[in-house]
Amino acid sequence: MEDNISVRIPNKEMKELNRISSHTQTTKSAILREVLRFGIRQKKLEIALEKFQKNEATAAKSAGIAGISLSEFLEVLHNKGINFHYGVEELREDFERVMKYDK
Prior knowledge:
It is a single chain. By secondary structure, the protein is mostly helical. It has five helices and no strands.
């Protein structure tokens, strides 16, 4: 099911939207849906990284927040040069989480 939402778009962004629409021959609605999906993925990853860095979530839990696999999350940490703090308790939590999804 889809919902409709009304949003005010500043003139500058509307011009960019029109420009993208003309270059791609895609409707503005389709472009906005694509941009929204991309933005949601980025925001989820941002939240997950923040929680991981603040020790509020393990790597596996953060990967779940971001909606990506643990290996993808570890790759993001590596690419961003984020310290991978990991102790026995985090390992235990992540192992239990992985085993739960593996069944």
